[in-house]
């Protein structure tokens, strides 16, 4: 199974991606985390990415496609993609890449969350500087990660001005992708407890009893 998770920034894709990866025993890839890791590397490419990410803009299709292609080439079972594809061009690239490898079309899930909830979530979250785990300050006010103990940071793209830009970019760029995948997309209410959202996704994709690929 190639599972695509869609939804605006802050809708809980990262949390659900982690839960689904554990349940389905397939890897989860966050293109955003991969890009942020490169942006922090200090390389020439990393500096370019850092400037783009700090403004809430999208990275070029070509670069993101190359990152995802490297994951498909290592694929031995299923895969969860969080944050990809974000444009119709990326979606077409993914479909062609899967077809060339004899893999079935992806299954897509969209998480619906009201915009005011999104803004509140993003404004009050922190992220581990090491393992990338995301925490809500209301639930986890400590300055250190509960998983690995590393310091927590606020992402540069979680500033209020950047949040609005990210949401606008999402609606402009990603909405057409949802139309592209409309025939095999499942919508789930993401404005619930993460465990309830998780169970709803499993029911939607037919994996309530577990799966391995």
Describe the 3D structure.
- The structure is a single chain.
- The chain has one domain: Rossmann fold (3-Layer(aba) Sandwich), CATH 3.40.50.
- Strand 5 and strand 6 form a beta hairpin.
- With 213 residues, it is α/β, with parallel strands linked by helices.
- The strands form two sheets. The protein has a five-stranded parallel beta sheet, with helices on both faces. It has a three-stranded antiparallel beta sheet with strand order 6-5-7.
- It has helices at residues 13-24, 31-39, 44-54, 61-73, 88-100, 115-123, 160-173, 175-180, 194-205; strands at residues 2-6, 28-30, 79-82, 107-112, 125-128, 134-136, 152-153, 185-189.
- It is globular and about 45 Å long.
- Helix 1 (13-24) packs across helix 9 (194-205) and helix 6 crosses helix 7.
- The model is unreliable at 208-213 (pLDDT under 50).
Find the CATH superfamily: P-loop containing nucleotide triphosphate hydrolases
Number of domains: 1
Order of helices and strands: EHEHHHEHEHEEEHHEH
Please tell me how large the radius of gyration is.
17 Å
List the uncertain runs: 208-213
Which bin fits the share of residues in helices? 40-55%
Derived structural class: alpha/beta
Tell me about the biggest sheet?
A: 5 strands, parallel
């Amino acid at each position: 199974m190639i599972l695509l998770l869609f939804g605006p920034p802050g809708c809980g894709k990262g949390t659900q991606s982690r839960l689904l990866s554990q349940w389905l025993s397939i890897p989860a890839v966050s293109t955003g985390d991969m890009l942020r890791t490169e942006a922090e590397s200090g390389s020439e490419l990393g500096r370019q990415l850092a400037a783009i990410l700090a403004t809430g803009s999208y990275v070029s299709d070509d670069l993101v496609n190359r990152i995802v292609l490297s994951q498909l080439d290592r694929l031995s079972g299923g895969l969860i993609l969080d944050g990809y594809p974000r444009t119709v061009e990326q979606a077409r690239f993914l479909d062609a890449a899967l077809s060339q490898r004899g893999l079935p079309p992806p299954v897509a899930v969209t998480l619906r969350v009201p915009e005011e909830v999104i803004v509140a979530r993003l404004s009050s979250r922190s992220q581990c500087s090491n393992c990338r785990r995301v925490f809500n300050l209301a639930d986890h006010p400590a300055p250190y990660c509960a998983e690995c103990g590393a310091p927590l940071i606020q992402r540069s793209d979680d500033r209020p001005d950047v949040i609005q830009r990210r949401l606008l970019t999402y609606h402009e760029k990603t909405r057409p992708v949802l139309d592209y995948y409309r025939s095999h997309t499942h919508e789930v209410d993401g404005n619930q407890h993460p465990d309830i959202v998780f169970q709803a996704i499993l029911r939607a994709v037919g994996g309530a009893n577990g799966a391995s690929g």
